[in-house]
Amino acid sequence: MSKQVTILGATGSIGLSTLDVISRHPGQFELFAVTGNTNVAGMLEICQTYQPKVAVMANADAAKLLQQQIEKNGIATEVTAGVDSLVDVASHSSVDIVMAAIVGGAGLLPTIAAANAGKRICLANKEALVMSGDLFLDAVSNNGATLLPVDSEHNAIFQSMPPEVQQGATLSTSGVRKILLTGSGGPFLTKPLEEFGEITPAMAVAHPNWDMGAKISVDSATMMNKGLEFIEARLLFNASFEQMEVIIHPQSIIHSMVSYNDGSVLAQMGQPDMRTPIAHTLSYPARIESGVEPLDFSQLADFTFVKPDFNRFPNLALALEASKSGQGATTALNASNEVAVEAFLQGEIRFIDIAQLNERVLNAHVNSKPNSLSDILELDAQARQFAKQVITQGI
Ligand code: NAD
Ligand code: MG
Fold this sequence. Notes:
alpha/beta, seven-stranded parallel sheet, binds nicotinamide-adenine-dinucleotide, binds magnesium ion, NAD(P)-bd_dom_sf, 1-deoxy-D-xylulose 5-phosphate reductoisomerase, isoprene biosynthesis
C-alpha cells in the first residue's frame, strides 16, 4: 500500500524537491497534506499539480485567497489555516510520513506533534531540533516515531554509521571514533575579512554549491549553519563534543564522514542535490530513484579540505560554545540567530552584526535551564524579544 505523506513547508526549497521525488513514485507515495506560509500562488500550483487532500496556510487571509482559487479551478483539496491545522496534518491517523521542512522555530509544534503521533519524521527543519533537543528526541522514542535526518551532512553521517547506531546504539560501543562534519565554507570562505562589512543580502544568499531558502543561505554564509548542524549532529547521534570535528570541503561532494577506531573513514558522496537525502529518508532502508545524476569522478577537478577559521566565522564558534553549555544556550542562540538573519535580510543590520547580536543574546541566556516545552517556548520568545531590543538600541 502506498505511504501517505504530509509535507510541512511544501512551497519551500526542500518542499518542492520532496514533491519532485514523490512524483517519480506514484504507486509508493500519496500526498495527504501540504503546508505553506502565505504563498498562495505557490500553493495553488502545488494543489493543481499534485491534488493533496489538505492544504494548510499560515493564516485565515491566505487560506481564503487560496480557497477562492481552489474553487475557481475545480480542485478537490480542502483548505485550512493556522498552527492547529499544521499540528492536525502532522499527526493525522492517515499519515505515515511527515517531511518537516518549515524553516525556523515555526516548525517546532507540528514536528513535535508528528513525534507524539509516532510518525516517520524526515527532518530538514534543524532549528526545531536545536531549539528543543532532548525533549524532541524523547517524544520520538517514547512514541515509537522514527527520526531520519534530511540535512545532507546528517543524512551522510547516518548512512556512514553501523546499523546498530542507526537503531540507537552508542558511538563508543560501536567502534566509532569521530563524526567528521563537512561544510563548504559558503560564499565568503576566501573573501578578504576587511570586506565583510560590505556584504549585502544578495551576496550572502548566493551559495556556490547549493540552491536553498534565504535563511539557510545566510546561515551558510556566516557558518552558523555548520554551528546549528554541530548541535544537531550531537543530538541525533548522541555524540560528545570531543567526538565531533568540523572540516571545510569547498566542493560539497563528500557530505560528511564517520571515522572508526580501526582507521577506516566512511563517507557518503554525491551531487549537491537535496533530492538524494530526501529520497533516502522517504524510502529507508530501500533505495529509490531520486532524479539525481550519479557522480562522474573523472569530471571532479578539486577535492580539498581545510580547518575552519573561527575568526572569519565567529558564529561557528558561538554555536560550539552553546553546544557545550546546554539546552538553554542552544535555544537562545537559535532564536537570536533567526531574528538577526531576518533583520539582515531586511537591511536593518550588517552581515558582521549577526555574530555580535548572537553573542549578546547568548551571553544573556547561557545559564537558562528549560525543562519543558513551555519553558522552551518561553525562552525562545524572551531571546527573540531581547534580540529585537538590542537591534533597536543599536548593536
Ligand atoms: P524555504 O525558505 O525555501 O522554505 C521554507 C518553508 O517554510 C516554506 O514552505 C514556507 O512557506 C514555510 N514557512 C516559513 N515560515 C513559516 C511559518 N511561520 N509558518 C508556517 N510555514 C512557514 O526554506 P528551505 O531551504 O526549504 O529550508 C527548510 C528547512 O530545511 C530549514 O530548516 C533548513 O535549515 C532546512 N534545510 C534546507 C536545505 C536546503 O537545501 N534548502 C538543506 C538542509 C536543511
Ligand atoms: Mg546541511
